[in-house]
Design a protein that fits this description.
heterodimer; A: alpha/beta; 2 domains; 6-stranded mixed β-sheet; globular; B: alpha/beta; Rossmann fold; 11 helices; 10 strands; ABC_transporter-like_ATP-bd (chain B); ATP-binding (chain B); ATP hydrolysis activity (chain B); nucleotide-binding (chain B)
Chain lengths: ~260, ~280
């Protein structure tokens, strides 16, 4: 497969289980090497059959938040857990401490959490600590593997807004693996759909969501707003479309259509 | 209605914790119903699920399953046979090296004779549509298929209640539909009572009844169309409004004169069509 991800893009990577999404993202920071072809990330080039090389710069550049990242917490205190990565990459103790204190605020937790054991925190807080550990590496590329799985609806919105905020403020390049078409439509500049190990569709959300049949063949569907609009179009014989995929936009578009018919 | 599980004044503390995870919770589950339990992370809903078949025991209060009591040691096996649990992670509940071994494992624990065992394994895999996979190894199965095997393992024990503890939250949309359809058939055609702990509001919408948990207490209980009209209750319990209700509200803000909030897309499309 071939895929280019331009700088500062927010890319949603979608596909059902076994479609190859997780395998793809493991290539992005060198956890897996391609059997054929190559991956270029910034200055680092990973080639099939290439020589062993130092992957540290690559791993520093690309931070992965794995599924259920809180399962990987292990240190005695939150501070130590967050410092582990930076220290491993040679950051001085004092600087790593300062970093921990900075990133804990970024994920919306109070400084007092730093001295606690990660295992005394709630599930939602543990996930934030795990995310802080990734942010402490100051990555330019953020790879998120279903970061909201298992969270309640309010927690989901909080975590996704946090990532989106970071993406914009720090001018990151973000790859979000998700099953949620709603999240893809809300945050992504581009969507890549994987199916049976191949890049199946790739484009702007508006382009992807025009392909309902193709999405359904890949075991996926369009967001609820589009589903609703299609139902309405079928019932009314109208041919409305959306410029974005929020509920507000859908309501506006339906409201205008109703007014026109009424007048 | 006849209740099959009865939770009375239950308070529960995890060892070493100062605040109770469940505070004075009472709840009846009726025979044959589909009950969804919703609530924020940490609201106590999974703890409640584990109390239903005696995986956890209450510090105060009682949990009855028909005439059995979870706190009574002599009753616990019968309760575990009657109330089967499907957990969140499909990879954590497969114990056998093949689908049939996995189902047999549970039956062996209950001392079911071999002849009867074979019969029950064949029956239960058919009921979840996994008969073609009897000799497959777990790693060859998708998440949805693994969860269906877990359900077959429960069915083989002839349960009266299935508890789904966020059983579809790690599955992709296809796997989710697979598992939910399987459970829905068992509920509708065989009268098995279903208790589903879930964050999926659209799923809770199709339940017979919904219980909302909040900070260890039962915040509300009722039919989905009354529960899901209460936006403040849902918000304060860390939940969202279902899609069609949110759209109903947004339409009203646009000046569309809907008489009420609608719960399903079909109802809302029809209501709009009447206004046109």
């Amino acid at each position: 497969m071939n895929l280019d991800i331009p700088d500062e893009t927010f890319l949603a990577l979608i596909g059902h289980t076994g479609s190859g999404k997780s395998t793809l993202i493991q290539h992005l920071n060198g956890l897996l090497k391609p059997s054929a072809g190559s991956i270029k990330m910034g200055e680092t080039l990973l080639e099939a059959g290439g020589k062993k090389q130092d992957l540290k710069p690559l791993r520093k550049k690309a931070g992965i938040v794995f599924q259920y990242p809180e399962h990987q917490l292990f240190e005695e205190t939150v501070e130590k857990d967050i410092m582990f990565g930076p220290r491993n990459f040679g950051m001085a103790e004092e600087e790593a401490k300062n970093t921990a204190s900075r990133v804990i605020e970024m994920v919306g937790l109070p400084q007092t959490v730093l001295s606690k054991s990660p295992f005394d925190l709630s599930g939602g807080q543990m996930r934030r600590v795990a995310i802080a550990g990734v942010l402490a590496m100051n990555p330019e590329v953020l790879i998120l593997d279903e970061p909201t799985a298992g969270l309640d609806p309010a927690g989901r919105v909080e975590i996704m807004d946090l990532f989106y905020d970071l993406h914009q403020k720090n001018k990151l390049t973000t790859v979000l693996v998700t099953h949620s078409m709603e999240d893809a439509s809300k945050y992504a500049d581009e969507i890549a759909v994987m199916h049976k190990g191949e890049l199946y569709l790739h484009g702007k959300p508006s382009e992807i969501f025009n392909e309902r049949k193709a999405l359904q063949e890949a075991g996926l569907d369009v967001p609820e707003t589009v589903q609703f609009l299609l139902k309405w179009n079928e019932k009314s014989g109208q041919n409305l479309s959306l410029s974005d995929f929020t509920i507000e936009e859908l309501a506006k578009s339906l409201g205008q259509a109703l007014k026109k018919r009424g007048s | 209605m006849e209740s099959i599980i009865s939770v009375k004044d239950v308070t529960f503390f995890y060892p070493g914790e100062e605040t109770a995870t469940l505070k004075n919770v009472s709840l009846d589950v009726y025979k044959g119903e589909w009950l969804s339990i919703v609530g924020h992370n940490g609201s106590g809903k999974s703890t409640l699920a584990k109390l239903l078949n005696g995986l956890l025991l209450p510090n105060e209060g009682t949990v009855n399953v028909s005439e059995y009591v979870t706190a009574r040691e002599d009753d616990i096996w019968e309760i575990r046979r009657q109330v089967g649990m499907v957990f969140q992670n499909p990879d954590n509940q497969f114990v056998g090296t093949s689908v049939q071994d996995d189902i047999a494992f549970g039956l062996e624990n209950f001392g079911v004779p071999r002849e009867e065992m074979i019969k029950r394994i064949n029956e239960s895999v058919q009921r979840v549509g996994m008969e073609a996979f009897l000799n497959q190894e777990p790693h060859q199965l998708s998440g949805g298929q693994k969860q269906r095997v877990a359900i077959a393992g429960i069915l083989a024990q002839k349960p009266s209640v299935i508890v789904l503890d966020e059983a579809t939250s790690m599955l992709d949309p296809v796997g989710r539909i697979e598992v939910m359809e399987t459970v829905r058939e068992l509920n509708q055609n065989e009268g098995i009572t279903v208790i589903s702990i879930t964050h999926d509001l659209e799923e809770a919408l199709s339940a017979d009844r919904v219980v909302v948990m909040k900070m260890g207490e039962k915040a509300a209980e009722g039919k989905p169309d009354t529960i899901f009209q209460q936006r403040d209750l849902l918000k304060s319990a860390g939940l969202d409004l279902p899609f069609s209700l949110k759209l109903s509200e947004a339409l009203r803000r646009q000046g569309v004169e809907l008489d009420r909030g609608y719960l399903t897309q079909e109802e809302l499309v029809n209501a709009l069509w009447k206004l046109a």
